[in-house]
Amino acid sequence: MARQIQFDRLGGPEVLHVREVETGAPGTGEVLVRVDAIGLNRADAMFREGSYFLQPSFPSSLGYEAAGTVEALGEGVTGLAVGDPVAVVPAFSLTDYGTYGDHVIVPASAVVPRPAALDPVTAAAVWMAYLTAYGALIDEGGLRPGDHVLLTAASGGVGLAAIQTARRIGVTPIATVRGTSKRQALLDAGAAHVIDTENEDLVARVKEITGGRGVQLAFDPVAGPGVDTLAQAIAPGGKLLVYGALDPRPTPLPNAAFYPDLLTGMFTMFRITADPERLRRAVAFVDAGLSDGSLAPVVDRTFDLDDVAAAHRYMESNAQTGKIVLTVGHDTDAS
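The chain above was modelled as a monomer; its predicted structure follows.
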């Protein structure tokens, strides 16, 4: 038997429950992972409350990221062995698999080797954030050394990963925050400039920083009417990529008559993880950055698996700077 988090109805963190479930054996192309740590993501909360693009079937599990060791292999799985330290990357549907548990079955295509020097908590904080940052800034954003990137609401896991990714490729990261409480943390994380959108004119500051040109890319998890302001801060021929919807209001497309050279679009990390070759390149980039220290996940706080509801409440408070991780204790070797 395994301990897994499940929920039977849509709602707040209180709908999450720890249950004893039978995992069974991994099927063809699947891996059973003994989980030590689980990375939390905003998508988990949206899925739980019914605002995600996928809707759960009850009882439902959840979770895209984890780190642990291989416990069993399904038929046809190669390149992995029982006992290997691994991480689970977001390369599946939450309607099919989930990582919130002490033992979980996931597709082998979503399992990557974990360097022995990388502890489980750190490893669980890597993949959603850094694959998203790599995909947006490099794979689709096409940023080059000397460019500038504008990162809004930059204090979350993806924002911090994007700051480090930009630095690694010679791009200047400009971060935005509301208020001053997280300003120093973003500067310490590597942001070249931090703009307080409550007290500074975003467009004027960006133009000042970039010598009047604007940024080559704005990467935004907020959406809503604010995208029109972001468009004014982007250089001709630049891009606006939206990857979230923290603002529930409608998101207007920037007026093409005013921004004829602006490329806009929604970015989803799954375009990277669904393509084996793109995922291979992304994993190689992230692994290299972890090895040389230029990419270093920031973990804000850890919670025990039993405290999953409290972890979700903390995530929804937006008080964190970096990732929130669930840790898993193993009193027995149940499977």
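The first strand starts at residue 2 and ends at 6.
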